[in-house]
Amino acid sequence: MFPSEIIRMNKLSEIRGHARAIAAAAGVFIVTFLLSSRSYGLATVESLKDYKPGRGTTVLAENGGILGHIRIEKNVPVPLDQIPQFLLDAVLATEDPRFYRHTGIDYRGILRAALTDIVSVQLKEGGSTITQQLAKVLFLSPERNFTRKLKEVAIARRLEKELTKQEILELYLNNIYFGHGAYGVEMAARTYFGKHVRELNQAEAALLSGLPQSPMGYSPYNDIDLAKQRQWHVLKRMIAEEYLNEAQAIQIYNEPLKLENLRAQEEIAPHVVDSVRKYIEKKYGTEALYRGGFTVYTSIDPGLQRAAVTALQDGLRALDKRHGFRGRIGFKQPAATQARLAALPVIVKAGEGFNAQVLAVGDTTLTVKGRGLVGSIAFEDMAWALARPKKDKEGRAAYRKPGDLVQVGDIIKVRLLTHDDKNRITNFSLDQTPLVEGAVVSIEPYTGYIRALAGGYDFVEGGFNHAMDARRQPGSAFKPFIYGAALESGFTPASILMDLPRMYGNDGPGNKAWTPVNYDHRFLGPMRLRTALELSRNAVTVGLIETIGLNKAIEFARKAGIESPISRDFTTALGSSVVSPLELTAAYATFASQGVRTKPILIKTIVDGNGKVLENYEPQPEQAIDAATAFLVTSLLKSAAETGTGKAARALARPVAGKTGTTNKFIDAWFIGYAPALITGVWVGYDNPKISLGERETGARAALPIWMSVMANALADKPLDDFTPAGDIVTVNIDPGTGLLARDSQMDAIAELFRRGTEPTRTAELMNPGRPAFPDQRAAYAPIGKALPDDEIDD
Fold it and tell me: Which of 222, 194, 226 is nearest to 207 (CA)?
């Protein structure tokens, strides 16, 4: 050995000696300081012996099922004797093997941690016992500094003096965090494995025992390989502490893990529960909310609620995929070898979505690994991401190769399609979490009861309740209120209106000249009022509000249930005034209930912890608009849903009425529609009101499919009831071109509805054979040169 190396090694040895001496001195100082110190004025712990979590507030569905709990302690405490001994042994071996031999502080651990921290010149190890961890969880903030560490040790000593070891261990296991919102072993068992803690097998217990050190880092939902490595660490610690032998540990490690679907466990109505939380806290206070034991009965139908959440999520994912793949969500260097103990994969259910790593990239397929499963993504299951925006020279769809999207090591979102455990064949589809948001509201028209409310794609990610709190322009979904006001002002469904260019000098944004245009940038001339709403003609609607006057239009909207401020200019005709999805849906409900307005009800009854009824809400209907007018509007909306902008709703094969809405630059997309027994409103858009949904993402394309999914579920077992005429309504055969009475034996005569006394009395004159006086909108496309495609007939 060279002299220089000997000198260098002597210096290193000297430095290590100094470090050990400093660490020892620091440890002695800490112990001495704590033994002589008081409690820093910290809270006493005597009450922990009788500690019981606050009763919180329970939110129930209409059928009495639990929608959610509101409480500070997000755990379900269980006594120590209900926790498997294997889990207790695993936790002790991993977290604190000297638990029963120390008095709250493991001095060996402190000295070891101090040495590591001094050498690295930062806080890397805490040397915390289970008692210290409990002190931190119950009394302290999570920051890492010496002051907090001193307080933690002081409290730990007091805990050891005032509680037994069994009481400390029970409190620890019921309060420590395990990730994904699970506090305590009972919630952890339910979250990860869908069972009670007493039902855990040894493999499950070993995995849970390794989570408290880094709950999200070792989460099997985030990285099953790291989770299995941590599980093996726990088993090795149990071998070291002589709880197991190596053969037993290997056998436990190789047991498959059947994880629960995280998405399926989520509350089906988180926005409803959060709305109740805000109401109770504002009216009764925080203490009552979390300690009062309140029970809140809501109007939510659990089955319809789940259908609404699923429909919204599916619809937003479909829209998001139409606009391409955003790329990987992360990267992890692939392991050089897959060799490890013969761990069986986690059992996953078809339809679950999760992260996966790309292992190989082929010309038409990807090989990925997620949740311990290795499988492939076929071309057709990622075609949405591979499709190019433009077609090739022959007009065929052009596609990229998988390698143009991802590389080996990339982390992507996938969804499990099929898994053949016997033949080890697994198929995934490429997925991604949408950035676009939306809302669904379903209301029972005559009672106002809110039967379903989904306020966004994912409450955990966002939390904002778009259904109740978003304020967005409704676009053409506001037009029924203009047409309703026109019907009350003497117009009929057969009145002839003009679809012609119009210019207004000071009614546009910023008081600039404004010319309303139609979605197809065409003007079709004369048409009946029914046709104008059916095809959602903008120019006609603006002319209509100009004729009847802004005041009448606004007054009618107010009577129907629009309470938000309404712009006092002609842009109101096209939905320039912002509303919430709940507000707009509730206003449409007035049409569905024959003019009877009932304020929407979400909370039906509130009962306190002693069983006293504090509030009780019953429907309070009032006749807001004329019944005949409401029925005529419903009839117009029925046409819109059968042959107009919402005609895709015909697929439900039952009587429905509804209206699409699309705002400028495709910022907001709506569909509000109803059957006699239920009305549902859907809104889709980005939180940033300046971001477009994309070209041609109209209400019919972005919102209507979600609505159809919800209503198909709601009406599946309902009779095919049609809307019942209300008021004094008569049916008259008219000439479709003029709106006048049809001639005797006129072949193209159509039936139209009128309020009695407003039906036409003059018969249409016979013009040129085969040519009506005013061509209907369908014929009006002919002079343009070609028929307008169905998907272009929109707002």
Answer: 226
